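Feature request, filed as a ticket because there's no other form

It would be nice if the structure record came with a short human-readable summary line next to the tokens. Right now we just get the raw output. Example of a typical job, pasted below so the devs can see what we mean:
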Amino acid sequence: MVGARGFLIAFNIHLATRDVQIAQAIAKRIRQSSGGFPFVKAIGLPLASRDCAQVSINFVNFTGTSFDEVWEVVVREAARLGTSVESSQLIGFVPWRAFERAPDFFRRAENFDESRILETRIAQLLK
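Raw output as currently delivered:
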């Protein structure tokens, strides 16, 4: 027996605050289990290495969620709660189909470059 799931995309958003309660409130607002976006899992965490709070997001079905809408809600909620988005990071790789749906979303990540697109990276390795 083989089990498989769709491609998971992990994305972290760093807030311009240390207040983890703000990150937790934003995570609660966007995650599916709290009535937010479908196929989104999110938690708020302290991030000691950057001295800030982080919203850690897993998109478990990238075709069922608008990356840009999630970003807009995070930015809006951060402002409503008295802070802003400081930066973001893509964790791992993103399939081309996800990137082409929302290139501006992924380009916001401070660590994004074309080698983060799975198909691009595979092609680089096969050269």
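Something like this underneath would help us a lot:
The chain has a mean pLDDT of 96.
Helices lie at 20-30, 67-80, 96-101, 103-107, 118-126.
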